[in-house]
Fold these 4 entries.
Entry 1:
Amino acid sequence: MRPPVSRHRPSNEGPPGPRPRVYSPDLTPPWKRKPQPVPEVAAEPGLVVEEAGTGFCGAVIRCEAGTVTLEDRFGKHRVFPLEPRGFLLEGKAVTLVRPAASPARPTRTASGSIAVPQARARVARAGRIYVEGRHDAELVEKVWGDDLRIEGVVVEYLEGVDDLPAIVDSFAPGPDARLGVLVDHLVPGTKEWRIAQSVTSDHALVVGHPYIDIWQAVKPSSLGIEAWPAVPKGQDWKTGVCRALGWPAENTGAVWQAILKRVGSYRDLEPELLGRVEELIDFVTGSGGA
């Protein structure tokens, strides 16, 4: 016979002990714990989310101040407030926010003309506009560059007016190739004035402003100065200006670049220059231009 099976544990086996408890390293009571931050997601059109409170699931079709409109797969629309942790994206809580607004396109060019978005530059005309120096060309490009590209007008510089007669002869302006020239300090009786008179014709227009240098065509208020200082005759004007204003006189090129950065539009320039440049553009692109 088999011995009876004992239902008692052997004397060397004690009763089972209590299970060990596992504690979380964070002993902060749940009611004191700060809610975990949830990511912010831009409510872009087409984004599919679920409203946490109602379970309504749909795609964003519109996001306005404080609300978002969802459309479900049956075409039903519902409007919900943009509340923190108010939506689920792929099962995870998120806060929907309004998408960043696209920067508004300027409606005017720096010259004040009506802007033409995405306009292609026109093939360059045969006509040209010449200015005295590099600084003049850079200023004209800064303010009128968009207009000139649309009109197909190229601006070049002379490095002074002494060679202007030879340049005009070589250019040979005509009905289909007009030439406009902008000259500094064009005052009757000056050397510049006499040269301008000698080359002016029906197809070549020379205009000028009264300033000694193109720097003076920038309004002093745009540069934070009261006025352009007077420089004694016989002294280099740019060097004298820099010394009088405490600017580095040994590097007038760097000073000019700093001045140019302060020019944002035609509002920073004197009217005497604005009118002359507009006159040249009209002349070169007029009915007799290419």
Note: Helices lie at 134-151, 164-171, 191-199, 220-223, 237-245, 252-261, 271-284.
Entry 2:
Amino acid sequence: MKRLVYFAVIIPLLLTSCHSKSAQEKVAFTQSTESKADKDSSQLKPADTKTILARKEVPVLCYHQIRNNLASDSKRAHDDIIAPDKFKEHIKMLADSGYHTILPDELCNYLVYGAKLPTKPIMITFDDTDLDQFTTGASTLKKYGFKGVYFIMTVSIGKKGRIGYMSAEQIKQLSDDGNTIASHTYDHKNFAQFIDEDWTTQIDEPTKKLEKITGKKVEYFAFPYGVYKASTLHKLKEHGFKGAFILSTKRDDEYPLYTIRRIIDPGRYTAKNLYYSINKSFNKLKQ
């Protein structure tokens, strides 16, 4: 009798366990299928240049040095310098205004495939490898759950002087924290003045160095001074880049992914000025 009771209890439990396992496997299969569907959706036919140019632009901000002005700074340099307190105020304004940062892969998927973006997307970028972009820039972004894009000039890595620069270890940490590490040439040579060997020294070698530091592919580029040469834009794709960033000049009609616009947030701006500038620069109606 006891044996019958034992089987009466155990068999339903085993059946329940088997059913539970089957359900778990079904959930796992469904999740796998959904993941595959998401992956397949990225294989849609890419948009043509006219469609890409017609999409609403995403605001992209550019920063250089985050420090207080020095008496020795030229008037021109002031546009590339923003005081730490003002930078923090501006980033807080973006967070309080409901902006969400995105990274280049998200932007390209939106431009090429029409992928969805968060509400009020914005991209925050830094040029030239300055140490204050790590000590002040990255820590401020992190406070608000923001991510950034760091365009690295590889000649400067680990250098010290009047202006300190990030070390390889700090660049790796930025990458590990989910930020994007991208290329800004070897020593800031003007892209419009490239000669044949510069595609090795200014593009390929810096890319390899950054990939060795981060362990990740480097697929984005920012033009020094924001200057590009239309006739050689196609070579950026040939050298492995998915996209490239200029400053506030007009995008190229044939290569819009390689002339993505940015605006500088100058040190003289208030947070209100910046908000106005973002809307004026990136919310224009298409002609």
Note: The longest strand covers residues 121-127.
Entry 3:
Amino acid sequence: MGRAFEFRKGRKMKRWAAMAKTFTRIGKDIVMAVKEGGPNPEANSRLRAVIQNAKAANMPKDNVERAIKNATNKDTANYKEILFEGYAPHGIAILIETASDNNNRTVANIRSYFNKCNGTMGTQGSVEFMFDHTCNFRIPKEGLDAEELELELIDFGAEEVFEDEDGILIYAPFNSFGTIQKELENRNIEILSSGFERIPQITKKLSAAEVADVEKLIEKIEEDDDVMNVYHTMEENEEE
């Protein structure tokens, strides 16, 4: 298996954000999708993908419909996606994806987390190059063979296709998202969820004490309402 498989396996061992925060993040995704491409999922592929993710997260249909309706209101906050970069203690690179309606607040908060936890906030481009920006799709495994599907989807940009207990996962470069989404829809293959991830090209193994130092910073960052995802170059410990 490749790096996407190992990355996914490691991420699954970690704690996930509370359901309330998951719904908040999906709500922001809906607003950004509607502002970008309109409220009709049939004509807005990004919104279609967010609705699939909402369903996968068991977000009530009423909440989704209300979020779409609210997003069309011109008074609704317009979230801007901002990427922050820096270093945690012990040389671990940190990449933070945020969606904020107040850039000054978000910058101040992220900087304070680095300062309080002996990290260093970096400049644009200082660590982003250490991560591969990927897209992924999760589809049902019934009636499909992962190896066969991988061969068929290579021409559409797929790099890794593998099976786990949740279904079949497809990984590809970030810019292949629309092409693969369209091909799966053309084949009438149900997309259970989809998204984007940043996979570290290399990881660093730390001692238990050093891991605790890095986790302290990551936890502070993840608690921030503006933060959508946090990625790092620390080697994941499956025993955690």
Note: The two ends are 22 Å apart (CA to CA).
Entry 4:
Amino acid sequence: MKIAAVRENAFAMPLNNPAYPRPPYKFYNREFVVINYRADLEALRAVVPEPLEVIGDTVAYEFIRMPDSTGFGDYTETGQVIPVRFTTPSGKVQEGSYVHAMYLDDNSPIAGGREIWGFPKKLATPKLSHEQETLVGTLHYGSVLCVRATMGYKHRELPLEPLAKAMAKPAFMLKIIPHVDGSPRICELVRYYLEDVTLKGAWAGPAALQLFEHAMCDVARLPVREVTSASHYIADLTLGLGEVVFDYLQND
């Protein structure tokens, strides 16, 4: 293969049989169960990188079922998201969320999410199911149970406008790509938005959340002190591409 052909075709690895197609990626009937809980403020500050600032002491624990996504297929994802504040170089303050940890069961979105955006994805076995009047979420890392979540099914309908505004806020993550010598080649704070969001329904209900200690799946590093709210909603959306807002290798 000629050098020019390599340059033209190289967007993902392996070169001749990429692990995922080119974006954009659209998601249909994406189902969210989000349990908000109070954690320890100092534990949050210890894991959220500057220049982001932690807002309060809360964490959103998310289970997401993606039954129909272009390029990525049918899979389930779970993880922790932390409310944060970011001040742009122009001085504008943005409120959004920091994606702290993600666990999922599908190679293609693991590879694409890590390589394109820098999503902190690891291979595991999350499940979200409907058991009679209860939504049940679990996360196993290998054979070990790391998370158990339950929520009452559609106890109260939620207005869509406040949720739509929340989904319009940016999310941030730390993209790290090593050099061939093991040193960091890329170390960037990335911002992205959800696009073309169509909410199809949203509901609230009682919820419970348990996190269990595991050396390689350390969700319990952000311990549950009190569950404050829970929501269950379904949406179509497009995962917007990211932009670099801070380069750790170029800025002090």
Note: DSSP finds four helices and 16 strands in the chain.
